[in-house]
Amino acid sequence: MFNDFLFLFVVFFLLSIFVMVGVAFLTLLERSVLGYIHIRKGPNSVGFLGLLQPFSDVVKLFVSEQCFPYVSNYLPYYFAPVFGLFLSLIIWLVIPYFGGFFSFDLGLLFFLCCTSLGVYSLMVAGWSSNSNYSLLGCMRAVAQSISYEVSLALILLSFVFLVCGYNLVSFFYFQFYVWLVFFSLPLVLVWFVSCLAETNRTPFDFAEGESELVSGFNVEYSSGGFALIFLAEYASILFMSVLFCVMFLGCDLYSFFFFLSVSFVSFLFVWVRGTLPRFRYDSLMYMSWSSFLPVSLNYLIFVLGVSLFFYSLF
Fold first, then answer.
1. 252-277 burial, b for 16+ CB within 10 Å, e for fewer?
2. pLDDT at 126
3. How far apart are CA 194 and CA 200, in angstroms?
4. CA distance 145 to 126
């Protein structure tokens, strides 16, 4: 049993290292793509084609002086970024690796629990900073994440009825012949937009509204604390890209095409950021409760009816 625990610890440590390296190059991809969208040059000086730029940024952030606001609540302020990064890393355990790692029978429920807990790290970070701007940012983040988690949960419930299980391995067997993206195209678009809102990305970056909140919930963070928040956000983006491909694009983690699909979905996150302006806050809430919720509910009822019909036949 000790050897098993040691093996799982080593594998999770290696997984965390690889996720951090993936996040580093995701930031490089984002800055390069945004450079081309803005018709300017992105990072291209540090290393060959700017490949060492993310690592130089990490060194710069972590060796900078850490500042603490005098009126902040020290312990929540200090540990909120650590808790957020921990949640962003532990959520990677639900991906079906087919290699003797973890296999969750209730993986989708674990995913929903981790995404719901991620709201608390934003809320505590904004509240403990004791700043009006950070408090406004965290309140926006909480309302936004709760609103879009409803549509995410209903979409997941539709596919739970379809594949008859909460384990993500079921998506691999169910998509052996044809991908789910061809059967649920409107729902795929709703899922992608909900992922944008869930990860606080443009055009739903109200928690980090630079134009009116000076940086939102992380306005008082510098150096290491800001780096941990940054890593947590981009690890969540990378995970949502992988989960999108697992649910809709085949789930074959040992094919090269799967990783091309993950790269393309991550590119879509960046493309949306370079293309669309920020929503108004009332438009965000209106779209969640008046558009996405009825669509996901209707699709849930439709999938449930189709599933019951075919199970009654066979």
1. bbeeeebeebbeebbeebbebbeeee
2. 82
3. 10
4. 15
Helices (H), 164-207: 169-174, 185-198
Residue 162 has pLDDT above 80, yes or no: yes
Three-class secondary structure of residue 9 per DSSP? helix
> 21-59 as b/e, with b when 16 or more CB fall inside 10 Å?
ebbbebbbbbbbbebeeeeeebbeeeeeebeebbeebbe
| Contact status, residue 145 vs residue 198, Cβ threshold 8 Å | yes
The secondary structure of residue 279, as a DSSP letter, is P
Structure-block tokens of residue 154: 């209903």
| Pair 238, 261: CB distance under 8 Å | no
As a whole number of angstroms, the distance between CA 122 and CA 139 comes to 9
Name residue, tokens 């209707």: 298
Six-digit token pair at 182? 């061809």
Alpha helices (runs of H) in 276-292, residue ranges in sequence order: 281-287
What SS3 class is residue 127?
A: helix
CA distance 112 to 121: 15
pLDDT band (50, 70, 90) for residue 269: very high
C-alpha closest to that of 298 among 180, 186, 189, 144:
186
Q: How far apart are the first and last CA of the chain?
A: 43
Q: Who's near 140: CB < 8 A, 6+ residues apart? A: 206, 207, 209, 216, 281
pLDDT reported for residue 210: 60
DSSP-derived 3-state class of residue 168: coil
